[in-house]
Design brief:
The chain has 2 domains: about 1-170 and about 360-375, Glycogen Phosphorylase B (Rossmann fold); about 175-355, Glycogen Phosphorylase B (Rossmann fold, 3-Layer(aba) Sandwich), CATH 3.40.50.2000. It is built from 15 helices and 14 strands. It has helices spanning about 15-30, 70-85, 95-110, 120, 130-140, 150-160, 180-195, 215-220, 240-245, 260-270, 285-295, 305-310, 325-335, 340-355, 360-375; strands spanning about 1-5, 35-40, 45-50, 55-60, 90, 110-115, 145, 165, 200-205, 230-235, 255, 275, 295-300, 315-320.
Length: about 375
Amino acid sequence: MRILWVTEHYPPVRGGMAVSCARLVRGLRRRGLKLDVVALAKGGEDVAVRAAEGGAEIFVRRERSAEAAPNAAWSVVRARHAAEGYDAVVGFGASWAGFVGVTFGAWLERPCVVLVRGNDLDRDWFLARRGGWVREALSRAGAIGAVTGEKAERIARMYPGKRVVWTPNGVDARRWELLPADERRRDEIRAVAGGGARRVFGLFGELKHKKRIPFWLEAARDAGLLGRMGLVVAGQLDEETAGILDDAAIAPRSVRLPFLPQDELAAMYAACDFVAIPSAFEGMPNVLLEAAACGAVPLVSDAGAMGAVVEDGVTGVVFRAEDREAAGAATRRAVEMGQEELGEMSAAVRARIRERFSLEREMDTLLELIGQAVL
């Protein structure tokens, strides 16, 4: 099977969407599919076509002329389709990529699968221009995959009769096993963050407004917990979050790091007792699965698919999104948790990741969805 894959998010772009996109492309190619990836990218050449094992990668620069980028991509796609036809199109994300994907699918007379990832439905749906893209993508899709079960239900209610399937993220737990160098780095980070006397909480990735870090720290402050906490922060902070972390009066002791390559993250995750994701709305964060695979216990809101991974009191600590009192109470439970209970939760969440959120399951689900669209 030969697939045309359209995305806005692909390495070297940073962030969770790019990580997920690259993982899915690699996984499908390993399963024997040929994939040409159209990346509507930032920076680089106007158009660049690079051979890759199992297909090609077509980078089209979008900043100079957003309306010209899809036309430039179409010129390449049409020629490659004429040489060896595509069987289906996949739009990774239901905003611009999904809109371009269903457009190319119609022009090629091929079915298109649209993958809803999170912000496309939670945010872009309500924006004038991007909302139009989302609605067009979903209405024209032959099949839809959604990264959370709750989003799949919402889409099915708006588009009755559409094939909508929950397509959760997966993670290779073996990749997150610690090497000796990781263990040394883990111990160094814990010592700086105050592990032992303090519970260490990790904050990772793009820490923008929806992640609600200021809200969570304010809840912890109101509960009188800041002196018993340490933070490991790695990623990109918005201005509000950075300002709070810089103020010792309203933030715990912290170790601050920039975005890290994935091969450096295992030690950071393992240095934490808990990974904190207090989001107002969410998809299915890679950080949650990766950190849990390293043994960090999740402290999360019930937004998005996090409740499918984290069972309160068994595989982590869960509170109602945007409920400050509940967030403070959940953080108190985490801070006061005994070492034995923490160890049991760590083992339980690791087991859940291996059993329910493996790469194999992720690929099986996605291949089944693509296959249903093609039939």
